[in-house]
Structure of nucleoside-diphosphate kinase:
Amino acid sequence: PAADQEVFAAEMERTFIAIKPDGVQRGAEDCLELGFKLVGIKVVVPSKDFAQKHYHDLKERPFFNGSCDFLSSGPVIAMVWEGEGVIRYGRKLIGATDRQKSEHGTIRGDLAVVVGRNIIHGSNGPVTAKDEINLWFKPQELVSYTTNAEKWIYGDN
Ligand code: UDP
């Protein structure tokens, strides 16, 4: 679904974040200080076919082919992050799709110059997040664990 059709809830959830090939080359993973829990990560060069699956919602858009070529042009760091509200927070940290509209202090706002090379991807809502996590990761590649900081992040009552 489009971002504006997604319904958000403040509950424990997971999102899919990927540092795109330009972001990997430019060290954008250093910018990721989500303060959430990383439960899956791998480095992959997606095939064109795989990139088409990832961007299937955009099939009819003029930039679909270019975006798929680009996503499959080099290593991508694929991640799943977990925490309360992480989907919306991830989008906020990433910034708007078009760099001209993304705020200073966001990853795209600080690093991207053109829309087709915008450094990073993040699921735009709960439905998309589920689909993307399933596409990129097998269940056994995701890890559930407790961190020592959690009780300080969430409290324990
Ligand atoms: N994109 C593009 N031109 C556009 C809009 C999007 O090249 O006019 C690319 C851009 O890399 C974007 C991706 O297609 O990240 C997916 O578009 P979407 O609208 O889903 O934006 P996102 O969710 O990545 O912010």
